[in-house]
Write a structure and sequence with these properties.
315 residues; single chain; 15 helices; 69% helix; mainly alpha
Length: 315
């Protein structure tokens, strides 16, 4: 699921796009920010659908093999065990999954060669051959082959990688979240009765998370000039153009949390943005951001401008 760090990254991406754009349409970027979270849900459904498509392709492949000019006995009597896989059957009966595939118009017709290629890889694997020969099947063993399709077939495919990268602009960033969602789905699908098996939740408390990301986005922009002046006062020995834009945005977001998010502890804010900087900024950004924020924080505390309540009081 998307945790607060992932959500902060979504805000960072939106702020970067906002500042790079000539048209400062705040509402449009807020809408885009909300959509970026929904895109994670959409990506998750597309991936579940692709797993399903690969499994279902066994039937298409069997028809093609039986229609060969000189089919073998094996071609005429294919093992279609995977079509009865409990995970696949449960997924195809899951009302939430079916509703989302309809909502996002999930159809793989635009790239028929992808599923064919992925199934060919699966069919040639020792794991699939062992699965077909296995007789003491269980929910666990049925999920194992689906995990193999996801981890060793789809995620290892450069073609699948390109398809998702083309379809989802933040695929490189959201890929880790997707893997966690799929892993959670495997864990959730533990029952024989399909109605008991639930999809993973992309966000647990969307009302709170939605308010958090919109408020963080708004406050960072609303006090942009104030935050810029605070940062400039502590970086007088630095030429402005030498300070990475990502570093500046991360510090402004942190300042917004210091001053306008009373329930978030200062230490949590600092740790979150230092971790984000490791992935999205320069190798030296971590220590640079930490040093500047420490100096500003000391002044804010001295001026009694840090007002924390409840959980925010934790040190």
């Amino acid at each position: 699921m998307l945790n607060r760090r992932h959500l902060r990254v979504k805000v960072l991406q939106s702020l970067y796009a906002y500042h790079q754009s000539e048209k400062k349409d705040l509402k449009a970027y807020e809408k885009s920010l909300i959509q970026s979270v929904d895109k994670v849900q959409e990506m998750y459904i597309w991936m579940l659908s692709l797993i399903n498509e690969v499994a279902q392709y066994a039937d298409t492949d069997a028809t093609a093999m039986s229609n060969k000019y000189l089919p073998t006995e094996a071609d005429l009597k294919p093992n279609l065990k995977i079509l009865g896989n409990t995970f696949i059957q449960s997924l195809n009966k899951n009302k939430e999954y079916l509703a989302h595939t309809k909502k996002y118009k999930v159809i793989w017709d635009f790239d028929p060669e992808l599923t064919k290629s992925l199934f060919a890889t699966l069919k040639a694997s020792d794991d699939y051959k062992a699965y077909l020969e296995k007789t003491d099947d269980s929910i666990h063993s049925d999920k194992d082959i689906i995990k193999f399709i996801f981890k060793k077939v789809i995620l290892k495919s450069s073609i699948a990688e390109q398809v998702f990268e083309d379809k989802f602009i933040y695929w490189p960033v959201d890929k880790d979240v997707l893997q966690a969602l799929i892993a959670k789905t495997f864990k959730n699908f533990a029952f024989e009765e399909p109605e008991k098996n639930k999809l993973a939740e992309v966000v647990v408390n969307w009302d709170d998370d939605r308010e958090f990301i919109i408020s963080l986005f708004q406050q960072t922009i609303r006090y942009d000039e104030t935050f810029q002046e605070m940062i400039a006062n502590k970086t007088q020995n630095w030429e402005p153009e030498r300070i990475a834009m990502m570093d500046t945005l991360l510090m402004k977001m942190a300042l917004a949390e210091f001053m306008y998010f009373p329930s978030i502890p200062v230490k949590v804010t600092i740790n979150e943005y230092l971790e984000i900087s490791k992935e999205f900024s320069t190798p030296k950004s971590n220590s640079f951001i930490n040093g500047i924020l420490d100096k500003i924080l000391a002044e804010l505390k001295a001026d009694n401008k840090i007002k924390k309540t409840g959980r925010g009081l934790m040190e």
